[in-house]
Amino acid sequence: MTGRTYGTRLPGLPDGPLHGRLIVLEGSDGSGRTTEVTLLKEWLEVEGHAVVDTGLRRSDLVSREIDQAKQGHTLAATTLALLYAADFADQLENKIIPALSAGATVLADRYIYTLMARAIVRGATREYARELYSFALRPEIVLFLDARAEILLHRSISKYGSLDYWESGMDLSLSRDLFESFFLYQERLSKEFEWMAKEYRFERVDANRTPDQVHADVRSRVAPLYAAGAKAARSSRRPAASA
Question: Is the pTM of this model over 0.70?
């Protein structure tokens, strides 16, 4: 991949191209992202590719602090956005870039797009969100797992037994009813993902289907990235034609 960012260049970013691939799986809670990352990682490793997975709240710097702060249900929107930005920046510098520099594939279970959407529905402007995450590397592909809100609700309750306070937007006071708040919050997030899909060139994947169907679709979109790389490698090893 090129190593290009969306604007600001992160200090210490290596010059020239990075040898790995950055693949992003986006979508709301319950869309099947985590399951797909697991299946995709297994498939790529069988194909002989080194894979590193990453996601939100996994940095050594602030991930624990984010979890602790969210338990109080009192975080201000700006503080929440900046904490997540710090978490992402730490992972980008210390995990994502080193892995890409070493030629590995990085599978991101969510990336900056969810963080931008969350910040915007909580009052940030789109311009602010763009600027806040302008240091992010441009992925080779962004696969957006698109599922209906009713499906997201069912899967979330089946998995966790209840709805999450923050994933239901209860901090926004959209409704006193948790379920109604969930649908209103998902509707607002969906509007932000709509414009991002065009600006950041998402590839939509129908996530209302079974995991096997979704995985087959995702594989069909990811495989060409490696086929092109293998073709280029074969060409580079081919002896030059004699004069």
Answer: yes
Q: CB count, 10 Å around CB of 85?
A: 20
Return the CATH number of the domain spanning residue range 21-222.
3.40.50.300
Nearest-angstrom CA–CA distance, 38 and 157: 21
Give the sheet arrangement for strand 21-26, strand by strand: 51-55, 105-109, 21-26, 141-146, 202-206
Q: Are 117 and 86 in contact (CB under 8 A)?
A: no
Residue-by-residue pLDDT tens, the chain, 243 positions: 878 999 988 777 777 789 999 999 999 989 999 999 999 999 999 999 999 999 999 998 888 888 888 887 677 889 989 999 999 999 999 999 999 999 999 999 999 999 999 999 999 999 999 999 999 999 999 999 999 999 999 998 988 888 989 999 999 999 999 999 999 999 999 999 999 999 999 999 999 999 999 999 999 999 999 986 555 444 444 554 443
Domain boundaries defined on the chain? 21-222
